[in-house]
Fold this protein.
Amino acid sequence: MSEERGRIVGIGGIFFKSADPKNLRAWYAEKLGIGDGGEYTSFDWRTADDAGTKQMTAWSVFARDTKYFAPSDQSFMINYIVDGLDELLAKLESSGVRIDPKRDDTDYGRFAWIFDADGNKVELWEPPKDVKSS
């Protein structure tokens, strides 16, 4: 695995809005086989560089009036898995990227948000380092 920190290593989640999240989740379950896990469904996978490391990509439908994507009015948000959140944020700040000052540190990882060149809010997630799977 590369020793460089402060980089994106995968997609951690795909989130989008719906006027009727329950119905849309049911549609995806019926038509595409994406299980309806309630708030989100996760797809587990292993990294090519380290098969002992288990990752996941969350898929979730939010209510259309959610404030989670604010201040952006976009209908979707992508969550990227980061190796070295602090290092990446420092690189982004030095290159002029707009960074949301909010941070969220949880037992399932650290989160930060940035905005791309079109003003779309992007979620960055650094999973806990001790998450290994046999």
In short: The chain has one domain: 7-126.
